[in-house]
Amino acid sequence: MDIALLVIGFLCILIGILGSFLPVLPGPPISWIGLLLLHLTEAVPENWWFLGITLFFALLITIMDYVIPAMGTKKFGGSKAGMYGSIIGLLIGLFLPIPGGIIIGAFVGAFVGEMSKNTDQKIALKAAFGSFLGFLTGTFMKFLITIIYAGLFIWKAIEHGGALFTFQ
């Protein structure tokens, strides 16, 4: 059972890392589930303080991911159309066969979204830039926390590895 929890937990960590880039997956909470599964094994001692603190940060980063792009868009004079355009552009950018398709898609989407609301190209470009910066900031925070959780997972699995890989 421990091996199954270890493998499923590691898959959650990997899906969480992917989720830091894909807006449809909540990356940090999925990575946290990986840490939880690791602590449910018999080899790794349960540490509810560790799990509570890491859950707090996973939820905080997830909430901030929604707040920061809105703040960036608002600070640069944008609207919700720019934020939605950024998300749609990101999804389209996933399928572009060019390097940086996600980034280009998010920026172009934010610009097109703002142009649908504002006829002034300069204002739309400024707002799209704000939305784009907010998106990048949120993505970076999610990626950073999921990488930290991956490191913690690997460290704890190696630390207790002997007990995890003994077949009883």
Total helical segments = 7
Poorly predicted runs of 5 or more residues: none
Name the shape in a single word.
elongated
**% residues in beta strands:** under 5%
Write down the overall mean pLDDT. Answer: 84
Class of secondary structure makeup: mainly alpha
Q: H/E element string?
A: HHHHHHH
Largest sheet: none
Helix content: over 70%
Number of strands: 0
Q: Rg, please?
A: 19 Å
| Distance between the amino and carboxyl termini | 10 Å
- The number of domains is 1
Pfam family, one: DUF456
Transmembrane segments: 50-68, 88-112, 132-155
Organism: Croceitalea vernalis
Keywords: Membrane, Transmembrane, Transmembrane helix
Structural descriptors:
mainly alpha; single chain; membrane; 79% helix; 168 residues; elongated; 7 helices
Folded structure, characterized:
The protein is an all-alpha fold. The protein has one domain (2-164). The protein is built from seven helices and no strands. The chain has helices at 2-19, 27-39, 48-75, 80-93, 101-117, 121-159, 161-164. It is elongated and about 65 Å long. This is DUF456 domain-containing protein. InterPro entries: DUF456 (IPR007403). Keywords: Membrane, Transmembrane, Transmembrane helix. The chain crosses the membrane at residues 50-68, 88-112, 132-155.
